[in-house]
């Protein structure tokens, strides 16, 4: 039934106080967009359906529309020729050129004022060199170490692999090839850098290593490292990537899941992730939210290593990273670790 336009306008104006919010909202939308009630309901239905489909696909990994092709072009377009116009900040140029641990974070200008501030205030500068790779210099000053590597790459989930591919090449080729370890994290990751260093000291950087939280989905045999909780490539692995993989479309093909694609590319040269749990079977890198690990509320189809440790043992002395944190959670964790804990340990020392 199509009601006259002015019916809704009168309703909206006169009945605001008496209308229940949803009814009012619906009537106002109907009035503003000049569509019938049934179209509005249809829109809501389609929207809800899309949402459910998205949730199912994201949470379970079931491919609901495998027949919709994804644009996988970009091998030639997003190549090293983009690197001649990259701008690097003064702080980036002043970072150490060699050392043990180089940390890099992939971000975008949307998060410069929020997430980037938080990591830059906390763990990021504890590495021997720290590099933000982003699309432009908005809200950043010369004292922040950044490179505009992604200035010609579109902001899209489906372009993530091209970003990482270019980033790894840029770091090794243009920044430095003389670090032992290259650690990648997201801008919503917290990293306990001391624990990362201690763990890496067990391995030889001249051998190809690929270290992080191992997932299994689509790579059931060897697995791949989750992107969000961070992963490390040894100098040898970086060299193999930059010299043998970057320029080879067959060995290093596109996939829309960026972390999976990186692992598939490295696996072409037999570089595989390893089981990084500690001797008590506790995970060092946590890719889901901390409370999901705590409650063992994890997406089973992704999991490679058994989940037999949860509850408070998720937070243990060998923990390296946590993911999906908001900026204030990052500051809170940092404050607890380096501020509050100091006082606790001091008292312990006094008492003995
Ligand atoms: C990076 O290195 C390539 C050569 O490998 C060069 O063409 C490009 O200009 C360099 N870019 C920067 C920003 O140093
Ligand atoms: C990042 O940290 C550096 C050094 O502590 C500081 O000078 C710079 O202003 C910070 N940048 C941002 C964006 O917070």
Would you kindly provide a written description of the structure presented here, covering whatever features stand out?
- The protein is an alpha/beta fold and 352 residues long.
- It folds into two domains: 5-60, no CATH class; 86-332, Spore Coat Polysaccharide Biosynthesis Protein SpsA, Chain A (Alpha-Beta Complex), CATH 3.90.550.50.
- The protein is built from eleven helices and eleven strands.
- The protein has helices at 5-14, 21-33, 37-60, 90-93, 115-121, 160-175, 193-200, 235-245, 258-267, 290-294, 327-351, and strands at 98-106, 129-133, 146-147, 178-186, 190-191, 210-211, 214-215, 224-225, 231-234, 285-286, 321-322.
- The chain has a six-stranded mixed β-sheet. It has a three-stranded mixed β-sheet with strand order 5-11-10, with helices on one face.
- Strand 7 and strand 8 (224-225) form a beta hairpin.
- The longest helix has 25 residues, at 327-351.
- The protein is globular.
- The structure holds 2-acetamido-2-deoxy-beta-D-glucopyranose (2 copies).
- Its EC number is 2.4.1.122.
- It comes from Diploscapter pachys.
- InterPro entries: C1GALT1/C1GALT1_chp1, Fringe-like_glycosylTrfase.
- What share of residues are in beta strands? 5-15%
Given this structure, which CATH class of the largest domain is correct?
Answer: Alpha Beta
In DSSP terms (H or I, runs of 4 or more residues), the helix count works out at: 11
Order of helices and strands: HHHHEHEEHEEHEEEEHHEHEH
Strand order of the largest sheet: 3-2-1-4-9-6
How helical, in percent, are the residues? Answer: 25-40%
Unreliably modeled segments? none
How big is the Rg?
A: 24 Å
Biggest β-sheet, characterized? 6 strands, mixed
The chain-level mean pLDDT equals 89
- Globular, elongated, flat, extended or rod-shaped: what is the shape? globular
The domain count comes to: 2
CATH topology of the largest domain: Spore Coat Polysaccharide Biosynthesis Protein SpsA, Chain A
**Which structural class best describes the helix and strand composition?**
alpha/beta
Keywords: Glycosyltransferase, Membrane, Nucleotide-binding, Signal-anchor, Transferase, Transmembrane, Transmembrane helix
Main location: membrane
Family: Belongs to the glycosyltransferase 31 family. Beta3-Gal-T subfamily.
GO molecular function: glycoprotein-N-acetylgalactosamine 3-beta-galactosyltransferase activity; nucleotide binding
